[in-house]
Amino acid sequence: MSATVTKKMVIFDIDGTLLRSDKNVSLSTLEALTRLREQGHTLFLATGRSLFYTKPVIDLLGFENYILCNGAIGFINHLQKFSNELASEDLTSLLDRFSELEIDAVLVTLDRLHRVSSFDLAKMKNAMSYVGGDLPPIRKINQSKEQIYQVLAFYDQTADKDIASRFADFDFVRWHEHGVDILPAEGSKAATISAFAGQLAFEKKDIISFGDGLNDREMLQAADVGVAMGNASAEVKGCADLVTDTNDNDGIFKALRRLALI
């Protein structure tokens, strides 16, 4: 009689994790996802991307559950079950400061990106290309009526301390040398994962997460097994329970084999 497999909640970051450096998916990763589903495990995406930029990956890999904008939006079975938007008044103050400093920003609603400035198009294009996106067009938006879940800001590390110290109601998560995600304080992939785990009756011992970026640190620590990709920084690897091979060298497949899940 075969042993019963304990069902797991397995969470994957996208860029640098599920996707190779060329933004394609390896055959070994496709096989790993198929085997996990065949065994009845529950799979989630957890990404800093908006729905607009995540939709191609959702469709390609057949994900039904996904956490977007670093935890600000969450879906189970394609139904939105979690929302944590930015406060309009605080956002206005932030954007005013960005204008003073000539820092470009993009506002993220559920399914669109709204660029608000054009101070340094080259810097924005460089950062957006990392997530496979183009430069969003400038769009006017009514901040008091639209639900804004995240801001993408484009500045280097020299401005980090000044900006973060002025806006304690926001969390600032760097994902690129020129790109920072801004979300409500206390919001994170880990917080939304925890909320969904409770809804789906998963305990911490049943959670496995994969990531490579600074915005993955909390979710690696919140899981029973946090797996850092081999291409992650030393800081991210230090938050993990297991370090696997790189996203370009079958890292997900190798880790799942090591954990005896496939």
Concise account of the structure shown:
32% of the residues lie in helices and 22% in strands. The chain is an alpha/beta fold and 262 residues long.
Q: Give unreliable regions as ranges.
A: none
* Helix/sheet category: alpha/beta
**Portion of residues in helices?**
25-40%
User: Secondary-structure element sequence?
Assistant: EHEHEEEHEEHEHEEHEHEHEH
Strand order of the largest sheet: 5-4-3-2-1-11-12-13
Q: Count of DSSP helices?
A: 9
Mean pLDDT reading: 92
Total beta-strand segments = 13
Strand content: 15-25%
Terminal Cα span? 19 Å
Give the oligomeric state of the chains in this entry, treating copies of one chain as homo and distinct chains as hetero.
single chain
The major sheet is characterized as: 8 strands, mixed
**Whole-angstrom Rg:** 18 Å
Shape: globular
Organism: Enterococcus raffinosus
Keywords: Hydrolase
GO molecular function: magnesium ion binding; phosphatase activity
GO cellular component, one term: cytosol
